[in-house]
C-alpha cells in the first residue's frame, strides 16, 4: 500500500487527527479513566477487525492514538480508514477531541561523522549500538525521542550541535510560535515556514517548530 501525500491526508478531512513527523495523531478527551479504558477496549476491537494496530496511550483525562503503517514507513489509506472509524466510535460515545494537542519532539544533532558517533548514541538511548537506521536512531519500544543526524561539514568552532524539532499540528504552529516569542524567544529564521521555523531563547539556544506543510 502506497504512502499518502500531505495533500491527500488533508483532503481526507480527518477533523480529529493531525499528521505530525511520521504518523497520524489524535487526542480524545475522555475526562475520566473508566471512559478512557472503555474507549481503548473498543478501539482494540476495531484494530483487530482491521488487522491494523495503533499505538494507544491511556491517562486519566485523555486517550492518545497514533496511526502509522510500519510496513510502508508512512501513512497509508488503511490508517485514514481506521482513523475515521475511531473518530466515529468516539463520537458515538460523546467523546470529543483536541486536534491542537498532539506534539512530537525529535532530537537533531549536527555531525560530519554519522558512522563514527551513531553507534554511541544508539547504545546510550536504546541499549543497542546497532539501532541506527540511515540518519536516525529510533527506539522501537518508544521510550525515548527519535534522534536524527543533520549532516554538516567538519568544524572546530564551538556552536550549538543539538536542537529540538517540535512537531505540531499545522493549524496550531503559529499560536505556539507566538507563545514562545511572547515568553522571551525570537524568530531566527522563517524562510522555510510553514515547513519549519527556527526559534531561539534569550541565550541563543535554538529549536525548530515543524509542520507537514510544504514538504
Automatic annotation (TrEMBL):
It comes from the Bacteria. Keywords: Lyase. Its EC number is 4.2.1.96. GO terms for biological process: tetrahydrobiopterin biosynthetic process. Residues 107-210 form the Glyoxalase-like domain. The keyword Nucleus does not apply. CDD domains: PCD_DCoH (cd00488). It catalyses: (4aS,6R)-4a-hydroxy-L-erythro-5,6,7,8-tetrahydrobiopterin = (6R)-L-erythro-6,7-dihydrobiopterin + H2O. InterPro entries: Glyas_Bleomycin-R_OHBP_Dase, Glyoxalase_6, PCD_sf, Pterin_deHydtase. Belongs to the pterin-4-alpha-carbinolamine dehydratase family. This is Putative pterin-4-alpha-carbinolamine dehydratase.
